[in-house]
Amino acid sequence: MLHAAKLSFMACVFALACALATPASQSQAADVTLRFANFPPASTFPCVSMDHWVAEVEKLTQGKVKVDTFPAGTLVDARSMVRGVMRGQTDIGCISMAYFPGMFPLMSAFELPLGFESAEKASVLLLQAILKFQPKELEKLKVLTAYTCPPAQVFSRKPVENLEAVKGLRLRAAGILADEVSLLGGTPVSMPQSEAPDAIQRGAVDGVFTSLDVVKDLNYAEPCRFGLLVNMSVYPFIVIMNKKSWEALPEDVKKVFDDLAMPTAQWTGAYVDAHGQDALKWGKEKYGIDYRPLPAEERAKALETVSPLVSKWEAEMKAKNLPAAEMLQFIRAGL
Ligand code: 3IO
After folding, report:
1. Protein fold of 152-233+290-309
2. 98: CA distance to ligand 1 center in Å?
3. 193 lines ligand 1 (CB under 6 A)
């Protein structure tokens, strides 16, 4: 008995000594395995971005870092994502910030109707703003990258030939974009994108207020044959990491992640801009969707209608002592 215990003790000492003596760069298997949770289905752009980032990480760390991905809420769902990352249920998670009203007050500027026209520009600007302002609301999280979808449009089961027809439509939206729906005369129903296909199916909403990519990726073209291309706000996203998981990373890996932040933001924005246009073409060919562009005059009117949201936001943020005017100026200068 004594002998066996002594042997296993020696085995432990030996194993520990080996572990300490092996430099990280020489080991073959991954040294670090991370979990990356996403809320929408694998076909959607946040998951395409995730897969792209993971491939880059595995390449740039020569396999030292392995990332297990969990799309479609299989590890953490949309509504639980911030908590899930904070508590370490996942190391990394992707969120659409509009699902957490009040949690990211300063960064919610990116949900305002400021005239973003492309996801690529908005994505780069979003990450730049996070790096520049270092908002307190993000201090408990490590932000790995950030991006937005293209501008939001109206997709509906019912005909929607002009702005007037938005009145009376129940549209799925989130955050400040839900307030845009209200001002345009519709009835917003707030929920994550991942719950919208079912809500359309059940008839709980008439349509959705979101970007063109999901016309294909969530097959909205099938139920929503009508649309109005209003080009309203973008939805901002951040990819967040548990602070303890981040701090446990080797310095060289931290550098790889930090260096990937901006290229990933830009890549994702460019990807989803192009994909949105493909989705529109696809929907026309496959389902004969009738998505009407808003004449310039009507677009100006729509922007005017939702513009009180900007001054309201600015006043609310000033009351919280947040640098609201500086943020608006930064965004407007970068548009
Ligand atoms: C979005 C969210 C998840 C998957 C694909 C997506 N394309 C655009 C969005 C933005 C959106 O409507 C939302 O709710 O975050």
Report:
1. D-Maltodextrin-Binding Protein; domain 2 (3.40.190)
2. 10
3. yes
